[in-house]
Amino acid sequence: MTFIRSMGSALLLAVLPAADGVQMTGTGVLAAARVDRSAMVEGGVEAMLGAEGINSEEVSEGGSEAGLVSFFEKYPHTRFSLDKPGFVQRFDWKATRVSHFKNASLNDLKKNPKTVYASTSPDVINFLIKTLEKNFKGKKTERVLYVSGDLPLSKLDKEGKVTKNKKGAKGKKPVKGKTIEKLHKLFPGGVWYESFDVSKKGFRAAPVGLNAQYMRPLYTFAETAIAAASVENKPRMALAAWGRFHPELDDKIPARQKLAHWVDTDPAVEAGIEHKTYAPKDFWAKLRLYKFLLVPRSGSVQSPRLEESLLLLTVPIVTREGEKTGSKEAAYKDLKTLGYPIVVLDDWSEITAPKLDQWWEELHPKLESFRKNCLTTEGFWQLVTGQVEKCE
Ligand SMILES: *[C@@H]1O[C@H](CO)[C@@H](O)[C@H](O)[C@H]1NC(C)=O
After folding, report:
1. DSSP letter string over 285-337?
2. Does ligand 1 lie within 6 Å of residue 323's CB atom?
3. Looking at ligand 1, which residue's alpha carbon is closest to its atom 3?
4. 254 in the Ramachandran plot: left (φ > 0), alpha (ψ -120 to 50) or beta?
5. Which of 32, 67, 206, 214 is close enough to 192 for a disulfide, judged by CB 3.0 to 4.6 Å?
């Protein structure tokens, strides 16, 4: 927990949309479900779950620390998981703050790394570049980098420039806007980037997986639903449940605005879309009964909702539109290439009853094997380290 608490506010914010995803229907429900946003930003997942009556420090009901550890080991967690077992532990170097790089029990900076996990924090990225350039100059290494965090790739170089004039401690001078180019050079094996809003040479959309902090008090609910989920037992068509934690994003994010307008129209209802709200503990058991989940973009490029849904053998439907009206997010194209059985649209109104039937026919046969082979720590690792090009 110490890492989590001491993380920068940017990262703390990053986690909020991640755990988002349950929608209220009427204004009364809306008011009831709204929680103090300033508290949420301050306390992150902790405060957000707290507002739902869930103590994020406690292990999920019916679970144990040992059970949680095996959940973390089995399923890929990339957010707030630096000090957790599983995916992040497999990297040679791992850091979401510069102090993590300097912690010898986490990182051996003298040993040339093949795999690195870092946050989008400019300080971390700059430290990483400087250290690799200094310690392993001229060494050709097929390194890969995984970058977790909410700073969009389109802004990575700009952030470098912003920090340019800051007076840092000696030896900590930032990289002056050449970040993307340098990372590409230092990581010829590829850079996996979560907030992949634009395409850049040598960079790919990173599969996001689950949020460890959010799962701690909820993992038994997820585990039970994952075990019970079956493509044969999905009596309901499509669920639209978003914005419970962040209703304010409905005004800011085009995909949310559009979904809010469309979801209660006749065509949406006729297509079988159910607009509902579920508390975090109930969400898993309910979602597994649906064939589809509509996942509008949140405050970040990708949402763990995608993986949560696929773990329940429910097909996520997303739209490409980014943070700005008319913009197109690059991430989903990459995810499709990686093998994600998802539906990617330009607009929600493309959803009709016949289309849903067609998508289900096409995608449902892929769901079980994708879950088994790809939505695991090992599956993510094989993708990220280039052992498989496409996971199925
Ligand atoms: C270094 O990392 C280890 C392992 O996560 C942790 O237990 C320890 O507290 C860290 N030390 C410092 C000085 O941060």
Report:
1. HHHTTEEEEE----SSS--THHHHHHHTT-EEEEE-B-SSTT-B-SHHHHHHH
2. no
3. 105
4. alpha
5. 206
pLDDT surpasses 50 at 354 = yes
Q: Compute the C-alpha angle 68/70/74, nearest 5°.
A: 120
Is residue 237 within 8 A of residue 272, CB to CB? The reply is yes
Ligand 1 pocket: which of 96, 101, 106, 109 to mutate (most atoms <8 Å of CB)?
A: 106
Note the pLDDT tens digit of each residue in 60-71. Answer: 999 999 999 999
The pTM assigned to this predicted structure is 0.86
Ligand 1 centre to CA of 175 (Å) is 27
Q: SS3 of 242, please?
A: coil
Q: Where does the chain have alpha helices with state H?
A: 2-6, 9-18, 27-33, 37-43, 45-50, 65-74, 98-102, 122-135, 156-162, 179-186, 212-215, 219-228, 249-252, 254-262, 266-271, 280-287, 305-311, 331-338, 353-373, 377-384
